[in-house]
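pasting for ref. prot 1 ->
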Amino acid sequence: MNASDTRNTSTLLEWSTGEKSETMHGSSLTFSGYLLTVNSTHETIRSPLKPELTSYLLSGLIPWTGYNITLRRLYSSVDVWRNNRRTRLGRAATVTIKTEPSNPPAPKEIRVLANEEGKVVVQIVAPDFWNGPPFKYHIHWEAQDQERNLSGYREVNVSSPWPSEKKWTTANLTLVPGVRYNVYVSAQNYIGPDVLLMGPELEEQVITAPLVPIDLVAESLTPIEATVSWRAAGPAEYFQVTVDEEYIHQGFYSYQPPSANSPAHFRARVFWDEKTESSEHSLIVNNLLPARDYVVKVLACTLNECSDIRRAVVFTQPAPTPKPDITIVDSNLNSFVVGWTFPRYNWRSDYDGFLVRYCRMSKVCEESYTDLHLMNVSSLRPDTIYNIEVRVNIKHSDGHVEVGPAARAQVKTWSKRPGKPQLRTHAEGA
């Protein structure tokens, strides 16, 4: 048996029949055809052939693969009474071939191993069969947005012969941060000088992470509002802005709310306008608390790939110290009573009681302190006008004491004690 016209997926087998022996020597088995066995490192094929054949086109082979081909005569008999079939094989005729190289298939997979500031590392998983001597990977890329006109290519060598224990190759790509790319990879075989066989391309979307925003500034506008501004360092699709209250835990700053499930105080997505790539982006954050530290975090994103975080801290302006609201003013001959309310919400710091000042003739004044919302002042002069001022006493965490603005009222003591009522009686019939 010999093989001829061997190509990348087929070979022509031819053999001579020699003396046709219809029966196996020393046996009642009769010649019924041939058994063709094809062995390679990848597969084993067995095919029965008709007895009248002297040639056979063996197809469906793998390119650039060595095969051991064996052809044996097949003898058989059928025992009708016992309902069984007996078979025996004759001596083997063998031939060894290696199929021709062919275009390699596409790589199996493209994996992104690293992606930071346009430095992308991809891993190319080799095809199962190269169909020839592995040579190179051809890589080219282009931005999905054709108006950007961002494209390039490079070639990466692979080792030959291809090591069985390594089925991948890594490649470093330098791309523009913040852009969506289509990356195409094809495998190449080297057949000889000026003879390269290139396979089909495998396409993969690669999204580069944008650069970190720059020039982040956060400033307090009012006790409950702050403005945040920044500039883009390069292309992006949107900016993610979050504002959280700053907490101190065991002497360290923590930029996360106390509960992991707590939402950020403020979250916004600001879309990037490519026409104003280098311009400043800004927004106003409201509903903040006065006199608090807030951490502003801004990151640039393209789809789900985002930059590192840029942080800034803003301290909101203190709220104006409120006045007490005087609700009760009353007097008698030598005393007066004054009462007030004060907002209970946590507007700035804990207040520490109230200072009540009362003056007659605008120069003779006295002061008293109380932690209640009511004060009774006695031992006063009758028929005298008193000007009353009530202020909140603020004690800050650093020990500093501050007195708030005054709520004012005026009261006059009685000029004399009211006389007793005169009771007159009139006798009936008088």
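and prot 2 ->
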Amino acid sequence: MLTAYDIMPEVMEAVIFSGLQAAGKTTLYRDRFLETHARISMDLLRTRAREAAFLRVCFETRTPFVVDNTNPTVAERARYVQPAREAGYKVIGYLVEVDHAVAAGRNLARERKVPAAGLRDVARRLVRPTPEEGFDELWHATAGPDGWRIEPLLTTPPLF
């Protein structure tokens, strides 16, 4: 029987998600990283101070982690990318992309809804991640009826 230690990544990974609210970022975390990576999320931690403390614990304990926030801009991603690189982590970015209308529909089904203005603001500010930001790998993820479709980001044009 496999244990979590059997499937832990050999290299410490910092996975940074980018995407609209209700794009499927948390579902991607649950489907691909739950058993191997800690989840850093403002939805859970609520303050940047708590988030920074949790991030420090991950670095100190060499724990792989996923940042499950919208992270729409280069500056917002840099708060995780640079410290992770300095700590010796492999930094992997995922753009979780969905049509704005689909995200808005999913948002309406949520228990804790994001105001429509918040969705529009993130959509307006969203900048596709690039290797120049310090990522070692970049992936494009979309959820479909048959599960996740994950491809190298640089080979996929913007969907929406």
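The chain has a mean pLDDT of 89.
Strands lie at 13-18, 38-40, 65-67, 90-96, 137-144, 147-152.
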